[in-house]
């Protein structure tokens, strides 16, 4: 299930969206990072990317998950959000450590779109909450 994100009309962003989309559908690409100064359109681009999944059927994902990350990055909270959206039961989840939870999440064919709030004190350790090794 994909939830459509409200987004204003934009000019000149289609080529960037096409570029990011080509990476999304490339089976060799596992992580895509978008970064830049505030106000350049990162969130808008992510919303457009999310919404493209509603229109395009030529992707390999069963689920698209939008995750908002606050100033304090907490990989357990990120994993919890993803787990709930994947309907992974408490029984399966409760006795696993962070790396085992990451392994459980990556068994699914999912695209996770993470939007980190501005002013975050520390960055998200690239993919550690998904691929393990976060300690």
TrEMBL record:
InterPro entries attached to this UniProt entry: NB-ARC (IPR002182), P-loop_NTPase (IPR027417), Plant_NBS-LRR (IPR050905)
Record-annotated NB-ARC domain positions: 15-111
A biological-process GO annotation: defense response
Tree of life domain: Eukaryota
SUPFAM superfamilies per UniProt: P-loop containing nucleoside triphosphate hydrolases (SSF52540)
Keywords: Plant defense
GO terms of molecular function: ADP binding
Residues annotated as transmembrane: none
Pfam families: NB-ARC
PANTHER family: NB-ARC DOMAIN-CONTAINING PROTEIN, NB-ARC DOMAIN-CONTAINING PROTEIN-RELATED
Protein name according to UniProt: NB-ARC domain-containing protein
């Amino acid at each position: 299930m994909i939830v459509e994100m409200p987004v204003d009309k934009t000019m000149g962003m289609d080529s960037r969206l096409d570029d990011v989309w080509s990476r999304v559908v490339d089976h060799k690409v596992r992580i895509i990072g978008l970064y830049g100064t505030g106000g350049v359109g990162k969130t808008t681009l992510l919303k457009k990317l999310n919404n493209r999944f509603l229109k395009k059927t030529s992707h390999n994902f069963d689920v698209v998950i939008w995750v908002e990350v606050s100033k304090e990055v907490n990989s357990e909270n990120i994993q919890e959000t993803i787990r709930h959206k994947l309907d992974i039961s408490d029984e399966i989840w409760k006795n696993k450590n962070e790396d085992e939870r990451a392994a459980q999440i990556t068994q699914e064919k999912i695209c996770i779109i993470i939007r980190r709030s501005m002013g975050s004190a520390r960055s998200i350790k690239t993919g550690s909450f998904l691929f393990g090794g976060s300690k």
